[in-house]
Amino acid sequence: MLEETKVLIIGGGPAGLTAGIYAARAKLDPILIAGPLPGGQLTGTSDIENFPGFPEPQEGMRLMENMQRQAERVGTKIILDEVKSLDLRRRPFSATVSSGDEYHARTIIFATGARPRMLGLPEEKEFLGRGLSTCAVCDGAFYRGKEVAVVGGGDSAMEEAGYLAKMCRKVTVIHRRSEFRASKIMVERVRAMPNVTWELDSVVTAIISDPARKGVAGVAVRNVGTGGEKQIPVAGVFLAIGHIPETGLVKGQVELDEEGYIAVNERQETNVPGFFAAGDCHDRRWRQAVTAAAFGCRAALEAERYLTREGIA
Question: What is the set of active-site residues?
């Protein structure tokens, strides 16, 4: 099957769904390819307290289901399939999905997100969202007054540790080296916090469970120099070892930075006219649901303006 559209949105997280809402309200009849399980990273988050408009915590899955229903109600056509190939070398753009169906689009809003780097421990899947987190801003408040660990040594890890130290009783920073990739001033700022301790030249070898509350009780660490092992009791573990942008589909077709994030300007435009990016596939700094939604809004508005200039909208 071949279907044509003015706006094709790839990605079913906050950025993609918000783009769908705005594009549909602009009467652009957008098609959104959400993947087999739409919702993005938020579907694995138990409680969300920082998305505006909800006085009570929202389960991630429920929030994304509501966003999807809203996008569909205003006219976004959502396809539960996965894009396997994308051709941006000719107009209209072409996308082929797993089923073999093909979509031709005058504009594309690429909102595939990014996935956090994990340690590769077998228990990570079990504890993600239940004591294991990849976002202190998202989940830190649940550990107020408790002891937590932050794994990583870059700027993101220092930001996470500093943020958590303001609300947690104790923060232990675990890093595999004694030197840091983080800027010197950021490390010094965190070192000055009295409730931050350090486990350097160390790696996490296991996450220890708490059977009573079905959560995290601590971490096991090994010193890479001495081989010595120890357990550190914590209620939460925050991984800050980077993200991997989901940009493989456009590699070699769109300008990417050295880490694979899509390069965009203030209008969400890439170096390919008519191809826009929104959310964590280009945002290496904030990575919040609300900022992803904002980027999706911007991308849809700019796509509409692009189509108007081209005499298509």
Answer: 135, 138-139
